[in-house]
Amino acid sequence: MFEPDRSLLNPKFNSYVLHSLDQDKAISRYPLSNKLSQTNISGRSPLSFQEVQSRIRHNHLTVGPNGRAATLVPSFHTLYELPRPIQASTVDSPHREYPSAAFINVDNLLVSDGYGSIYAIHVPQSGPARVINSYELSIPEVYESAQSSVPFRLHRVGQTSEGTCLAILSSRHYSNSSSTSSKGKVSNAKFDVWGVSIDLEAMSQDQSLQLDIVWHRRGNDVPIFVAYDDPRKAFMLLGSNPYRAIDVAAPATYEPAPDEIAPIPRAGESLDARPSEDILSLTRPPPYSWTQTSDSVTVAFPLPSDTPKNAIRVTFSPRTLTVLVQKEDTDDALSIPLPHYTAKVLWDGIQPSASFWTWDRQAEHSFGLLTLHLDKQHEGTRWAQVFALSGTRPAGDTSEDDVEVPETLDPSELYLIRESLEKYTAALQKGEDASGLGLGRGVPSLGEGEMDPEIDSADANTVCVTWVGVDGSVPSWERSLDAPFTLLSTPFPSSPAPQPTLIVKNGVDGVLFTLSEASSPSDPPEWKHTSTFSALSFVLASKRDTRFVHHVSDQAVLAFESGTRGNVYIYRNTAGIHDPVAKQAVLKIGGGAGGSLLGVGMMHTKVGKPIILCLCEGEWIVAHDVL
Length: 627
Fold this sequence. Notes:
Protein name: NudC domain-containing protein 1
Strand content: 25-35%
Pfam families: CS (PF04969)
Domain CS: 283-387
Keywords: Cytoplasm, Nucleus
Organism: Somion occarium
Largest sheet: 12 strands, mixed
């Protein structure tokens, strides 16, 4: 789905250079008459990890459809004051959501109060705003919810006809089987995504109306990004997992218990048999050892420590690997077969430009280590073997080709293959038993109970794309687009929303993809590589306190910090495709008297220059002339 164009990558890129900006000239601050607060506490039930993440990412600022600013000096006035319901907080009461809003068109917008109601408000060019109708979400029994109504968050609105719009809402799924651990952690949290239809031409009513649920999906997280593609008549949802209908079962996952992890005997092999004291069972270690993470595979080959570096040849390609080691003939009976792989097909694709190898002689040992670091093309995909044909060696074949090599589950034990090979050769010389030499016990390096799978195991930026038609149907091309990828940046919130673009991790780079325009709903979405932000993934990896990361077309990427520091890091694109350097800048936005950053957006001046809008707890900030 996201295939980079090699001609747009920049292997000559060296670094970002600091370009100083005048803080006083680039930033204008305006105090708010009413100080805002993001404190949102209701009930005493714990929040799930996904809900905490969603609240951190929540953007409290909504940009109107008039994308041109006549002046940089803001004026503040109240559009409409929503009624605040009186609710008693109990242990089991659902947590309220942050209020959210989305414009339908120039004159109408939807506002969710965070308690479970949504208001359709008409905002004329002149005169006061008025409420067209208010709506509540009533959950039918078919959705197996323990709550008849829940607070929800408004993500996106698409106008499907002249007087009708479809709004995308998300809410926490409260089921009768939901459980909380003894440490207060919510387990197995699920989230509902609702597509609801709103009739803007309906007559005003004194009481709240029920929202018309057109379709429903369920997933493991709150959507990170939602976009509406009008020509395709479909919504795009980005989340950590695909969003599925409740009648579509998710793929079953199974984690074996420690006592279930055991070696599988081969034909004619007895794992229970013990070698007698008179018979030596000499087991040759496998030709290599390997381990993997979510985005890389590491392979270690033991070589004689006197192997010169110029005798090693390694070639990476997207689907194959070549490893050739030349060594002078020797009469040593204990010499081991050297790696000889010519265009060997890998189990899955890799990124050749981000893969590399190292040679560690280890002079104090008889063997050194040739280590290959392969960057996975499809992050999050778990490899069963290193090579596609591993484990297919015919019975009785004693060659090293296509031998099955189990994964070393404990990365700290990856390099034990060198010690295993030294013990093996020593046993041949001394006539000792060399059996029982393993490549790893599979024991986690962290103590049991100290890992949080939701935080430590999953990559928070790994997302999947789910397409849903406005009528709830699944597009014919949707099933082939569920491969996970690592998301680095989403478009800057602005209105009208531009053609969707995403910045996806590719090695250490950030690759900008633009969604192709469609002429009919049957046109499958195609993502075209249009630009590259070199080393963006690398520099963003050090920014652990970022709240928002957005890009302005192919000009720049802005990473906003939360908390008291409140900096924004600006990474500009290179002037030319193959320029070795690019500019970066740092500005102070939040923190101090202005308080924490709550939301960001973008508008343009009358001449088309972008201006960045920032909403803090006590200030309205305009950043101009920064791009």
